[in-house]
Amino acid sequence: xxxxxxxxxxxxxxxxxxxxxxxxxxxxxxxxxxxxxxxxxxxxxxxxxxxxxxxxxxxxxxxxxxxxxxxxxxxxxxxxxxxxxxxxxxxxxxxxxxxxxxxxxxxxxxxxxxxxxxxxxxxxxxxxxxxxxxxxxxxxx
Length: 141
What we know:
4 helices; Four Helix Bundle (Hemerythrin (Met), subunit A); 141 residues
């Protein structure tokens, strides 16, 4: 796959992860445990694929500068900075939630997931917003 397709692929993976996270949440609220488990593993896989593709892209291309107007750059940075910080911080928490689920420590899993899920969802959704701002709303081309 050509490297210039990676930003779109990354946005697709982030959007897919968002949908899977919401779906998994709805499944567990309806006590559909197997569907929840399958969907959350799929969200984990799509997020992992995103991270791999993101690292490959930025290793080859470097950073992508924001090309929009100053007022939009302020909004972009307000979205981007917490996105980056929370994305980095989330990795060990996601692993902890998954490990607790696989060890059948559901009380601990549930307590941590109540905090991890909304932040993971925020990171996934804002990843799509960053993509839209860089490549569609204020493209450099």
